[in-house]
Write a structure and sequence with these properties.
The complex is a heterodimer. Chain A is α+β, with helices and mostly antiparallel strands. Chain A has helices at about 5, 20-25, 30-40, 50-80, 85-100, 105-115, 130-135, 150-155, 160-165, 185-190; strands spanning about 15, 140, 145-150, 225-230, 235-245. In chain A, strands 1-4-5-3-2 form a 5-stranded antiparallel β-sheet. In chain A, helix 3 (about 30-40) runs antiparallel to helix 4 (about 50-80). Chain A starts with a helix and ends with a strand. Chain B is an alpha/beta fold. Chain B contains 11 helices and 8 strands. Chain B is about 50% helix and about 15% strand. In chain B, helix 2 (about 30-45) packs antiparallel against helix 3, helix 4 (about 75-95) runs parallel beside helix 6 (about 115-130) and helix 6 (about 115-130) runs antiparallel to helix 7 (about 135-140). The chains are: A alpha+beta, B alpha/beta. At the A-B interface, helix 7, strand 4 and strand 5 of A face helix 2, helix 4, helix 6, helix 8 and helix 10 of B.
Chain lengths: ~250, ~300
């Protein structure tokens, strides 16, 4: 599918993320490959004693068999899981990285940042009024940025510039939801591609969109809600121009 | 200057404040900024939703008096600001009168070749929120490049002027909504939730997993809040995953006059159409004990 064709997909107003890292690493093929390398590379010089050799060959053969079997199992599990699922999982990890590396995760981080920000800060590409409106819309939760209002960003910035602003908060993955962002370069066009192009539920498949009983590995409800902000206590509230993040 | 005493001064200040927004010399852009500030402050202060909606709608009506005769003489900048203000009022109030004002500003912008994609999208969103599905689909056909959401057909819809509690259930193919009146006689639970709200997702997962809760909620009416998008595929996904808690839509929110908050999730415990208890959020506000208290109050409420 070409970039242009992707751009023509119906606008997607949600972001679906996925299961926890810990559950992912159970039985991951990369892990198994590393283990295989470790166990097939002898760490001691060969022994001259026959019994030791036999034991070593037995252990090596057994390890190899177990690894081949479990690798095959893991690969078959990957085959069974839809590509959508692993795609969403990769996006989920990227988002976790974005959020972990974000310089601003709380109101106190924001205050410190604004006291020391340089002229080249992405926020300073906004006019003073728009910057003030954007900053006053930010709602933080204990997990980071809970929600923000995108209207000032949409009115004044390109997709790349919005991406840079949202990167301060680890929320850059939500840029493509802002459908009115200006697209002036190839980078803008790429940023505006929905990273989850077609969710299983959109294809009429058997898997639920997300959550799905909590054990389908397809989301668990970690989504961003367009035109909603982070409410208290533990609610999403209808708000124009806002995005309620999965970290709300 | 004896007449300038304290009460007179207060009355004068109130009068000045009440009329400040209607000064014709203030640009529409200035007035929009004032409206946006009221909106932002009301959201940050977390006042009750119905009070917030009333405040924003009344502020719009004070700041932007719609005058059909002046609209064609307005500048593009003023029209854009006025359109956005009407959109904000419609978003919070969903009144047909404000939708008509949005249409008036948009038509004027079109006649000056200044209407934007974002404005058409907002117009479509408000048609969806007000269940003006024919208008939404017409606008969608006029602007295929915007990939606007398809509005479904409503089967057995309400008669003109009919306003009673109802649920719009989704057909299997997702192309139609079946209007079903809801009888609120006796005891009922209504849950406002949404599949794109992770608090709602946590709620339905927990309720489905706990036999005591799933028993309480087995007859509950699950409704998505009225909004600018139906998110049909997501609601269908929810229904597939949780067939015992199928979600639908309400035709118009006025049809449920006893409900005063649309944040998701909100749990209403009704007896003969009156709210006995209301709990918001998941985990529930005040902890699971508050949910237990609400359930007990509802169970023990007399007819």
């Amino acid at each position: 599918m070409s970039l242009y064709e992707r751009k023509l997909q119906p606008r997607s107003r949600y972001r679906m993320t996925e299961a926890r890292l810990s559950s992912h690493f159970r039985g991951h093929p990369d892990r198994l490959t590393l283990s295989a390398k470790g166990s097939t590379t002898p760490s001691h010089p060969p022994s001259t004693r026959k019994s030791q050799m036999n034991l070593k060959y037995f252990v090596a053969s057994a390890s190899f068999s177990v690894l081949v079997f479990s690798s095959g199992l893991a690969l078959s599990q990957e085959d069974i899981a839809p590509n959508q699922d692993s795609h969403a999982r990769r996006i989920s990890y990227q988002r976790e990285i974005d959020e972990a590396r974000a310089p601003i995760k709380s109101e106190s981080d924001l205050r410190k940042y604004l006291l020391t920000e340089s002229l080249s800060s992405p926020l300073n590409r906004l006019s003073p009024d728009a910057k003030a409106r954007f900053i006053s819309s930010l709602i933080f939760s204990e997990k980071g940025l809970g929600s923000y209002n995108y209207q000032s960003l949409e009115d004044e910035l390109t997709a790349s510039q919005i991406y840079d602003v949202l990167s301060l908060f680890g929320a850059q993955a939500t840029t493509h939801l802002i459908s009115g962002a200006k697209v002036e370069s190839k980078a803008d066009l790429l940023i505006m591609q929905p990273q989850v192009i077609s969710l299983p539920c959109e294809e009429g498949g058997d898997l639920p969109c997300h959550g799905g009983g909590g054990d389908t590995g397809s989301g668990g409800g970690e989504v961003d809600h367009f035109e909603y902000s982070c409410g208290s206590p533990h609610t999403c509230i209808s708000t124009p121009g806002a995005i309620c993040m999965h970290t709300c | 200057m004896r007449w300038l005493n304290y009460p007179t001064l207060l009355i004068a200040l109130f009068w000045m404040n009440a009329n400040a927004g209607s000064h014709v010399d203030r640009s529409a852009v200035d007035r929009l900024h004032e409206l946006e500030k009221i909106e932002t402050d009301s959201i940050r202060s977390q006042i009750a939703e119905d009070r917030r909606d009333d405040l924003i709608v009344s502020s719009y009506e004070r700041l932007f008096r719609f005058d059909d005769s002046k609209i064609l003489r307005m500048s593009v900048e003023d029209l854009q600001a006025s359109f956005k203000a009407a959109y904000l009022a419609t978003f919070f109030g969903i009144h047909l009168k404000h939708i008509a004002e949005m249409e008036g500003y948009l038509n004027a912008l079109e006649s000056q070749h200044a209407a934007t994609s974002a404005q058409y999208t907002r117009m479509h969103d408000m048609y969806m929120a007000a269940r003006l599905f024919d208008k939404a689909n017409k606008l969608r056909e006029q602007h295929p490049d915007l990939h606007l959401e398809v509005a479904p057909l409503i089967v057995a819809g309400p008669r003109d002027g009919e306003a009673r509690p109802n649920k719009l259930g989704i057909s299997t193919d997702g192309n139609t909504l079946l209007y079903t009146p809801i009888d609120t006689k006796g005891k009922a639970i209504v849950v406002i939730a949404h599949p794109l709200c992770h608090f709602s997702m946590k709620a339905i997962r927990d309720i489905s997993a706990r036999s005591d809760l799933s028993h309480v909620f087995k007859e509950a009416i699950w409704l998505a809040p009225p909004g600018s998008s139906l998110d049909m595929k997501q609601v269908q996904g929810w229904n597939k995953s949780y067939p015992a808690a199928t979600m639908g839509f309400m035709y118009r929110r006025e049809d449920w006059p006893m409900l005063d908050a649309w944040a998701t999730p909100t749990f209403y415990f009704l007896n003969n159409g009156k709210v006995v208890a209301r709990v918001q959020g998941w985990p529930p506000q005040g902890g699971y004990e508050s949910l237990d208290r609400a359930i007990n109050a509802w169970r023990n409420s007399k007819d």
